[in-house]
């Protein structure tokens, strides 16, 4: 009997310029998704677009033709409200139907403002309660290791989530277990509902805290695509310990009038949405 060839994941994009073009499309889609509701998680989505582009198009082993592939890599969005960039990326990657994005935040739609498993297995876990995503990811990483699976587990936390005690209990466990198939990415945008994170609970030094819990750790510019690629490559090569990448992102990145504005749920009336789309088009060199 002829041996069955090993499944090959979808090709990875490793060219920085091509990934930047993907990120630009994602930013435009974020604005388009939020505009009909008049407010939403625009700032976070614009800021994290480069990170999502690199993760879904260069890093994760996926097969869009078979989203349930058992050996796929898993990504959990612990900041489950940041759905504009999440859904935009899933559509761009071919994991959900782009036409269905028109139902974003409509009553009865599975494209809820907080990502949930109602959308299907492309949502690995429902993480609407902040601080829980890392715990779920640890369970997945431990299961994959015990099964000898090639899958890696990735989880995105917001920096404000680090104020949750459950995160640090999970961090201690993952370091103790040496889960080197686990990669945590902290979206370090300095923003939470109450404003700047330091006005609530000071977080620094973030990376050193994770090192103390037994993690490999690195600070990364979230808008430097080559640096993100290198950091993720180092994470894959880490042995005997999980990796934490503290990814600094700028809220509103790509729209000069919005950059740096700490608006957790940004008001986006039609004129602001039009301005944002025009600014993004200009940055892409469109007439």
Give structural notes.
This protein is of the alpha/beta class and 287 residues long. The chain has 8 helices and 9 strands. Helix 1 (16-34) packs antiparallel against helix 2 (42-59) and helix 1 runs antiparallel to helix 8. The longest helix is centred in the first third of the chain and has 19 residues, at 16-34. The model is unreliable at 1-5 (pLDDT under 50).
Outline of the structure:
With 287 residues, this protein is of the alpha/beta class. It has one domain: Thiamin diphosphate (ThDP)-binding fold, Pyr/PP domains (Rossmann fold, 3-Layer(aba) Sandwich).
What order do the SSEs take from the amino end to the carboxyl end, as H and E?
A: HEHEHHEHEEEHEHEEH
CATH topology: Rossmann fold
Q: Beta fraction of the residues?
A: 5-15%
How much helix, percentage-wise, in residues?
Answer: 25-40%
Counting DSSP H or I runs of 4 or more residues, the number of helices is: 8
Distance between the termini: 59 Å
Radius of gyration: 18 Å
The largest sheet is: 5 strands, parallel
Q: What CATH first level would be assigned? A: Alpha Beta
Blueprint (SSEs and pairs):
Blueprint: H1 16-34, E1 39-40, H2 42-59, E2 74-77, H3 83-92, H4 133-147, E3 153-158, H5 165-177, E4 182-188, E5 191-192, E6 195-196, H6 206-212, E7 216-221, H7 225-237, E8 243-248, E9 266-267, H8 270-283
What labels describe this entry?
five-stranded parallel beta sheet; 287 residues; Rossmann fold; alpha/beta; 9 strands; disordered N terminus; 13% strand
């Amino acid at each position: 009997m002829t041996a069955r060839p090993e499944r090959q994941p979808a090709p990875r994009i490793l060219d920085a310029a091509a990934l930047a073009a993907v990120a630009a499309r994602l930013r435009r889609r974020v604005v388009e998704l939020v505009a009909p509701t008049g407010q939403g998680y625009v700032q976070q989505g614009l800021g994290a677009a480069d990170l999502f582009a690199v993760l879904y198009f260069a890093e994760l082993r996926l097969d869009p033709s078979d989203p349930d592939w058992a050996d796929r890599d898993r990504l959990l969005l612990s900041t489950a409200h940041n759905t504009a960039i999440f859904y935009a990326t899933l559509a761009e990657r071919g994991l959900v139907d782009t036409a269905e994005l028109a139902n974003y935040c409509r009553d009865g739609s599975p494209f809820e403002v907080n990502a949930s498993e109602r959308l299907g297995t492309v949502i690995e876990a429902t993480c609407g309660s902040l601080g829980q995503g890392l715990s779920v990811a640890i369970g997945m990483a431990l299961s994959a290791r015990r099964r000898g699976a090639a899958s890696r587990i990735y989880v995105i936390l917001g920096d404000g989530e680090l104020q949750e005690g459950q995160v640090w209990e999970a961090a201690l466990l993952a370091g103790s277990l040496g889960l080197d198939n686990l990669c945590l990415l902290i979206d370090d945008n300095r923003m939470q509902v109450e404003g700047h994170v330091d006005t609530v609970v000071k977080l620094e030094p973030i990376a050193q805290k994770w090192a103390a819990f037994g993690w490999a750790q690195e600070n990364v510019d979230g808008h430097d695509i080559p640096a993100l690629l290198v950091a993720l490559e180092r994470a894959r090569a880490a042995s005997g310990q999980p990796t934490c990448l503290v990814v600094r992102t700028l809220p509103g990145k790509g729209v000069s009038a919005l950059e740096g504005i700490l608006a957790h749920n940004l008001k986006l009336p039609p004129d602001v949405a039009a301005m944002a789309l025009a600014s993004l088009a200009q940055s892409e060199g469109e007439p």
